[in-house]
Write a structure and sequence with these properties.
The chain has about 325 residues and is α+β, with helices and mostly antiparallel strands. About 55% of the residues lie in helices and about 10% in strands. The strands form two sheets. Strands 3-4-5-6 form a four-stranded antiparallel β-sheet, with helices on one face. It has a two-stranded antiparallel ribbon with strand order 1-2.
Protein backbone atom coordinates (compact mmCIF):
# COMPACT_ATOMS: atom_id res chain seq x y z
CA UNK A 1 0.00 0.00 0.00
CA UNK A 2 1.86 3.03 -1.27
CA UNK A 3 -0.82 5.62 -0.54
CA UNK A 4 -1.92 6.43 3.00
CA UNK A 5 -5.31 4.80 3.65
CA UNK A 6 -6.33 7.30 6.31
CA UNK A 7 -8.94 10.01 5.81
CA UNK A 8 -7.77 13.59 6.08
CA UNK A 9 -8.55 15.65 9.16
CA UNK A 10 -10.47 18.28 7.20
CA UNK A 11 -12.85 15.72 5.73
CA UNK A 12 -13.34 14.09 9.13
CA UNK A 13 -14.05 17.46 10.77
CA UNK A 14 -16.62 18.29 8.09
CA UNK A 15 -18.36 14.95 8.66
CA UNK A 16 -18.47 15.49 12.43
CA UNK A 17 -19.98 18.97 12.07
CA UNK A 18 -22.65 17.83 9.63
CA UNK A 19 -23.43 14.72 11.69
CA UNK A 20 -23.89 16.77 14.86
CA UNK A 21 -26.18 19.21 13.08
CA UNK A 22 -28.18 16.24 11.78
CA UNK A 23 -28.45 14.80 15.30
CA UNK A 24 -29.68 18.13 16.67
CA UNK A 25 -32.40 18.53 14.05
CA UNK A 26 -33.35 14.87 14.43
CA UNK A 27 -33.80 15.42 18.17
CA UNK A 28 -36.09 18.38 17.48
CA UNK A 29 -38.11 16.30 15.01
CA UNK A 30 -38.48 13.45 17.50
CA UNK A 31 -39.56 15.83 20.24
CA UNK A 32 -42.22 17.44 18.03
CA UNK A 33 -43.47 14.34 16.23
CA UNK A 34 -43.25 11.70 18.97
CA UNK A 35 -42.61 12.97 22.50
CA UNK A 36 -45.08 15.85 22.47
CA UNK A 37 -47.77 13.67 20.87
CA UNK A 38 -47.61 11.22 23.77
CA UNK A 39 -47.65 14.05 26.31
CA UNK A 40 -43.94 14.19 27.13
CA UNK A 41 -42.60 17.74 27.15
CA UNK A 42 -38.82 18.07 27.20
CA UNK A 43 -37.62 21.51 28.35
CA UNK A 44 -33.94 20.61 27.98
CA UNK A 45 -33.17 19.04 24.61
CA UNK A 46 -29.61 18.07 25.48
CA UNK A 47 -30.37 14.59 26.93
CA UNK A 48 -32.44 13.81 23.83
CA UNK A 49 -29.61 14.94 21.53
CA UNK A 50 -27.10 12.90 23.55
CA UNK A 51 -29.22 9.73 23.43
CA UNK A 52 -29.91 10.11 19.71
CA UNK A 53 -26.25 10.90 19.05
CA UNK A 54 -24.95 7.77 20.75
CA UNK A 55 -27.56 5.61 19.01
CA UNK A 56 -27.03 7.22 15.59
CA UNK A 57 -23.22 7.02 15.66
CA UNK A 58 -22.81 3.59 17.22
CA UNK A 59 -25.40 1.87 15.01
CA UNK A 60 -23.92 3.52 11.91
CA UNK A 61 -20.36 2.44 12.70
CA UNK A 62 -21.42 -1.10 13.62
CA UNK A 63 -23.51 -1.45 10.46
CA UNK A 64 -22.25 -2.93 7.16
CA UNK A 65 -21.59 0.64 5.98
CA UNK A 66 -19.02 1.19 8.77
CA UNK A 67 -19.94 4.86 8.51
CA UNK A 68 -22.67 7.35 9.19
CA UNK A 69 -24.64 8.42 6.11
CA UNK A 70 -22.63 11.66 6.06
CA UNK A 71 -19.30 9.82 6.28
CA UNK A 72 -20.41 7.43 3.56
CA UNK A 73 -21.18 10.36 1.26
CA UNK A 74 -17.77 11.82 2.05
CA UNK A 75 -16.21 8.40 1.31
CA UNK A 76 -14.75 7.68 4.74
CA UNK A 77 -15.26 4.68 7.01
CA UNK A 78 -14.60 3.80 10.64
CA UNK A 79 -12.95 0.38 11.04
CA UNK A 80 -10.91 -1.64 13.47
CA UNK A 81 -7.24 -2.57 12.98
CA UNK A 82 -8.24 -5.49 10.79
CA UNK A 83 -10.08 -3.23 8.40
CA UNK A 84 -13.43 -4.64 9.49
CA UNK A 85 -16.40 -2.76 10.89
CA UNK A 86 -16.42 -2.03 14.62
CA UNK A 87 -18.29 -4.33 16.95
CA UNK A 88 -21.25 -2.65 18.62
CA UNK A 89 -19.60 -2.33 22.08
CA UNK A 90 -16.59 -0.57 20.55
CA UNK A 91 -18.85 1.58 18.39
CA UNK A 92 -20.82 2.67 21.48
CA UNK A 93 -17.56 3.37 23.32
CA UNK A 94 -16.25 5.47 20.43
CA UNK A 95 -19.54 7.38 20.19
CA UNK A 96 -19.50 8.18 23.91
CA UNK A 97 -15.86 9.25 23.79
CA UNK A 98 -16.33 11.44 20.71
CA UNK A 99 -19.46 13.15 22.03
CA UNK A 100 -17.93 13.57 25.48
CA UNK A 101 -14.74 14.96 23.98
CA UNK A 102 -16.60 17.50 21.86
CA UNK A 103 -18.70 18.58 24.84
CA UNK A 104 -15.53 19.01 26.92
CA UNK A 105 -13.82 20.93 24.11
CA UNK A 106 -16.81 23.24 23.75
CA UNK A 107 -16.29 24.47 27.31
CA UNK A 108 -13.85 26.80 25.55
CA UNK A 109 -16.85 29.06 25.00
CA UNK A 110 -17.37 29.29 28.77
CA UNK A 111 -13.85 30.62 29.31
CA UNK A 112 -14.99 34.29 29.20
CA UNK A 113 -17.28 33.48 32.12
CA UNK A 114 -14.75 31.36 34.00
CA UNK A 115 -11.09 31.00 32.86
CA UNK A 116 -10.84 27.70 34.77
CA UNK A 117 -12.56 26.02 31.83
CA UNK A 118 -9.29 26.38 29.90
CA UNK A 119 -7.99 23.44 31.94
CA UNK A 120 -10.72 21.28 30.35
CA UNK A 121 -11.13 22.66 26.84
CA UNK A 122 -7.51 23.06 25.70
CA UNK A 123 -6.24 19.57 26.69
CA UNK A 124 -9.36 18.01 25.15
CA UNK A 125 -8.85 19.89 21.88
CA UNK A 126 -5.25 18.67 21.79
CA UNK A 127 -6.33 15.07 22.36
CA UNK A 128 -8.93 15.31 19.60
CA UNK A 129 -6.38 16.99 17.30
CA UNK A 130 -4.21 13.87 17.52
CA UNK A 131 -6.35 12.71 14.61
CA UNK A 132 -4.35 15.12 12.45
CA UNK A 133 -0.91 14.59 13.97
CA UNK A 134 -0.40 10.88 14.72
CA UNK A 135 0.89 8.25 12.30
CA UNK A 136 -2.44 6.41 12.10
CA UNK A 137 -4.50 9.62 12.43
CA UNK A 138 -6.10 8.51 15.69
CA UNK A 139 -7.70 10.95 18.08
CA UNK A 140 -8.06 10.03 21.74
CA UNK A 141 -11.44 8.39 21.03
CA UNK A 142 -9.82 6.22 18.30
CA UNK A 143 -6.88 5.23 20.51
CA UNK A 144 -9.17 4.05 23.31
CA UNK A 145 -11.77 2.36 21.09
CA UNK A 146 -9.15 0.83 18.77
CA UNK A 147 -10.69 2.47 15.71
CA UNK A 148 -9.24 3.92 12.52
CA UNK A 149 -10.83 6.28 10.00
CA UNK A 150 -9.97 5.35 6.42
CA UNK A 151 -10.90 6.33 2.89
CA UNK A 152 -13.59 4.28 1.20
CA UNK A 153 -11.34 2.44 -1.24
CA UNK A 154 -8.77 1.38 1.38
CA UNK A 155 -10.73 -1.58 2.80
CA UNK A 156 -13.41 -2.16 0.18
CA UNK A 157 -12.03 -5.53 -0.96
CA UNK A 158 -10.52 -8.52 0.79
CA UNK A 159 -7.20 -7.75 -0.88
CA UNK A 160 -7.43 -4.15 0.28
CA UNK A 161 -8.11 -5.23 3.87
CA UNK A 162 -5.12 -7.58 3.79
CA UNK A 163 -2.88 -4.79 2.54
CA UNK A 164 -4.32 -2.50 5.20
CA UNK A 165 -3.49 -4.97 7.96
CA UNK A 166 0.07 -5.29 6.67
CA UNK A 167 0.34 -1.52 6.47
CA UNK A 168 -0.81 -1.12 10.08
CA UNK A 169 1.48 -3.86 11.38
CA UNK A 170 4.57 -2.90 9.36
CA UNK A 171 7.56 -2.12 11.59
CA UNK A 172 9.74 -0.75 8.80
CA UNK A 173 11.13 2.62 10.03
CA UNK A 174 11.18 4.02 6.49
CA UNK A 175 7.52 3.18 5.94
CA UNK A 176 6.56 4.56 9.34
CA UNK A 177 8.40 7.79 8.57
CA UNK A 178 6.57 8.00 5.24
CA UNK A 179 3.24 7.38 7.00
CA UNK A 180 3.64 10.28 9.40
CA UNK A 181 1.56 13.33 8.50
CA UNK A 182 3.55 16.12 6.90
CA UNK A 183 4.06 19.32 8.88
CA UNK A 184 2.24 21.27 6.19
CA UNK A 185 -0.84 19.06 6.52
CA UNK A 186 -0.79 19.43 10.32
CA UNK A 187 -0.63 23.21 9.97
CA UNK A 188 -3.53 23.19 7.49
CA UNK A 189 -5.55 21.00 9.87
CA UNK A 190 -4.78 23.36 12.77
CA UNK A 191 -6.00 26.32 10.69
CA UNK A 192 -9.15 24.42 9.70
CA UNK A 193 -9.84 23.77 13.38
CA UNK A 194 -8.84 27.18 14.72
CA UNK A 195 -10.76 29.46 12.33
CA UNK A 196 -14.30 28.36 13.33
CA UNK A 197 -13.25 28.05 16.98
CA UNK A 198 -11.84 31.58 16.94
CA UNK A 199 -15.00 32.94 15.35
CA UNK A 200 -17.31 31.09 17.74
CA UNK A 201 -15.19 32.08 20.75
CA UNK A 202 -15.44 35.77 19.83
CA UNK A 203 -19.21 35.44 19.46
CA UNK A 204 -19.33 33.84 22.93
CA UNK A 205 -17.14 36.66 24.28
CA UNK A 206 -19.44 39.35 22.86
CA UNK A 207 -22.50 37.58 24.28
CA UNK A 208 -20.82 37.33 27.68
CA UNK A 209 -19.90 41.02 27.67
CA UNK A 210 -23.51 41.82 26.78
CA UNK A 211 -24.68 39.66 29.69
CA UNK A 212 -22.36 41.47 32.12
CA UNK A 213 -23.64 44.83 30.89
CA UNK A 214 -27.23 43.65 31.33
CA UNK A 215 -26.60 42.40 34.88
CA UNK A 216 -25.00 45.67 35.98
CA UNK A 217 -27.73 47.77 34.36
CA UNK A 218 -30.43 45.58 35.87
CA UNK A 219 -28.88 45.80 39.34
CA UNK A 220 -28.74 49.59 39.08
CA UNK A 221 -32.36 49.83 37.99
CA UNK A 222 -33.42 47.64 40.91
CA UNK A 223 -32.16 50.29 43.38
CA UNK A 224 -34.97 52.70 42.45
CA UNK A 225 -37.05 51.74 45.50
CA UNK A 226 -34.10 52.30 47.83
CA UNK A 227 -33.22 55.59 46.17
CA UNK A 228 -36.80 56.82 46.54
CA UNK A 229 -37.00 55.78 50.21
CA UNK A 230 -33.60 57.31 51.01
CA UNK A 231 -34.54 60.57 49.32
CA UNK A 232 -37.88 60.82 51.10
CA UNK A 233 -36.31 60.08 54.50
CA UNK A 234 -33.58 62.63 53.90
CA UNK A 235 -36.18 65.28 53.08
CA UNK A 236 -38.23 64.32 56.14
CA UNK A 237 -35.48 63.89 58.74
CA UNK A 238 -32.46 65.59 57.23
CA UNK A 239 -30.07 62.61 57.28
CA UNK A 240 -29.38 59.44 55.35
CA UNK A 241 -30.41 56.06 56.69
CA UNK A 242 -27.72 53.39 56.95
CA UNK A 243 -29.79 50.34 57.96
CA UNK A 244 -32.94 48.63 56.78
CA UNK A 245 -34.64 49.19 60.14
CA UNK A 246 -33.82 52.87 60.15
CA UNK A 247 -35.06 53.30 56.59
CA UNK A 248 -38.27 51.39 57.21
CA UNK A 249 -38.13 49.75 53.80
CA UNK A 250 -37.12 46.18 53.16
CA UNK A 251 -33.79 45.87 51.39
CA UNK A 252 -33.79 42.99 48.94
CA UNK A 253 -31.22 40.47 50.13
CA UNK A 254 -30.77 39.26 46.61
CA UNK A 255 -32.05 39.55 43.06
CA UNK A 256 -32.47 37.06 40.23
CA UNK A 257 -29.20 37.84 38.44
CA UNK A 258 -27.20 37.08 41.57
CA UNK A 259 -26.24 39.82 44.02
CA UNK A 260 -27.40 41.99 46.91
CA UNK A 261 -27.60 45.60 48.10
CA UNK A 262 -25.92 47.30 51.06
CA UNK A 263 -26.60 50.70 52.62
CA UNK A 264 -23.61 52.78 53.67
CA UNK A 265 -22.91 56.28 54.99
CA UNK A 266 -24.17 59.42 53.24
CA UNK A 267 -26.93 57.67 51.30
CA UNK A 268 -24.56 55.43 49.39
CA UNK A 269 -25.92 52.15 47.99
CA UNK A 270 -23.42 49.40 47.22
CA UNK A 271 -24.31 46.57 44.86
CA UNK A 272 -22.35 43.33 45.04
CA UNK A 273 -22.54 40.28 42.75
CA UNK A 274 -22.40 36.63 43.73
CA UNK A 275 -22.55 34.48 40.59
CA UNK A 276 -20.08 35.39 37.81
CA UNK A 277 -16.42 35.41 38.94
CA UNK A 278 -15.58 38.59 36.99
CA UNK A 279 -18.41 40.49 38.69
CA UNK A 280 -17.53 39.14 42.13
CA UNK A 281 -14.38 41.27 41.99
CA UNK A 282 -16.29 44.55 41.61
CA UNK A 283 -19.05 46.49 43.28
CA UNK A 284 -21.34 49.18 41.89
CA UNK A 285 -21.68 52.35 43.92
CA UNK A 286 -24.87 54.40 43.61
CA UNK A 287 -24.51 57.70 45.48
CA UNK A 288 -26.65 60.84 45.85
CA UNK A 289 -25.41 64.11 44.46
CA UNK A 290 -27.06 67.50 45.10
CA UNK A 291 -26.83 70.03 42.28
CA UNK A 292 -28.76 73.31 42.52
CA UNK A 293 -31.07 71.82 45.16
CA UNK A 294 -31.87 68.92 42.87
CA UNK A 295 -30.89 65.35 43.73
CA UNK A 296 -29.29 63.14 41.11
CA UNK A 297 -27.85 59.69 41.55
CA UNK A 298 -24.38 58.89 40.31
CA UNK A 299 -23.15 55.42 39.39
CA UNK A 300 -19.55 54.27 39.48
CA UNK A 301 -17.72 50.96 39.77
CA UNK A 302 -15.04 49.91 42.23
CA UNK A 303 -12.72 47.21 40.92
CA UNK A 304 -11.17 46.40 37.57
CA UNK A 305 -13.53 45.93 34.65
CA UNK A 306 -13.61 47.11 31.06
CA UNK A 307 -15.42 50.40 30.60
CA UNK A 308 -17.03 49.01 27.44
CA UNK A 309 -18.93 46.47 29.57
CA UNK A 310 -20.46 49.12 31.83
CA UNK A 311 -23.75 50.87 31.11
CA UNK A 312 -23.11 54.39 29.83
CA UNK A 313 -24.29 56.06 33.07
CA UNK A 314 -21.74 54.05 35.13
CA UNK A 315 -18.63 54.82 33.07
CA UNK A 316 -15.88 57.13 34.26
Amino acid sequence: MTVSPFAGFERRAAAVIIDFLAMFFLAIAIQVSILERVGIHVSDLRPVVLAIGVLYLSVSWASPLSATPVQWLLRIHVVNKSGERLGLPYAVLRALLLIGGIIAAMTLFKVPENPKFLAISVPTLVLLFLAAATTHRQGIHDLIAGSLVVTKGAVRTTEGRNEFREYIADKDPALRAKSRPKIFRIIVAAIVLSIPLFGMYNIALMQFDRELRHRIAYAYQETWKLRTALYEMHLDRGYWATTEEELGVEIRAGYPDGGYFELEENGLIRIRFTVIPRLKRISVIVSPNWMDDELTWECRVEGEISQAILPSHCRD
